[in-house]
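Appendix B. One record, verbatim.
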Amino acid sequence: MRTTGWMCAILVALSGCASRTDNEAPLAGVAIALTNAGFEAAPGADGSIEGWTTSQHAGPVSYKTGIDRDVHAKGAASFRIERIREQVYGSVSQTVPVASHAGHTLELSAKMRTRDVGPGGWQLTLVFTGGVPNPAREAAPLTGTQDFRTVAIRTRVPPGAQDVEFSAVLNDYGTAWLDDVNLRVVD
């Protein structure tokens, strides 16, 4: 039997079978709230993107970044980055708390697109913070010209992790887009 949203709400109210307190482990399939995950919010007067940080390796401005209302996978907008001078990398990132999810598996997914991106690629990454030893988790980079596709990373939250910073990183020349970013607990 398929359970619809209202049916689930009734079952929870009657039995408490799917409810939890803040001290209990999260339920599988629960989405972790992100800010402006679809890049729908209007940019700030300074070009800032609500909930997101853009950065580059060093030196003079080498990337043109912003909201693109002409190219998008879902909704009415996406994030766009274009390398305009040689640089090691440029990125867009967001950090969210994950301490309550320690020991559980998270899945980060996003729609990503490329145009004329070099071999270093356009790559989805994530890193846990909070004094835990861990390398960056990285999806295979997209290169060349590719339409929007879903890219995902699954990884277990290490004990002691406080936050997770996830990024989309342009490691080469070209133009790339990011849209419909999701983070969820899968077990």
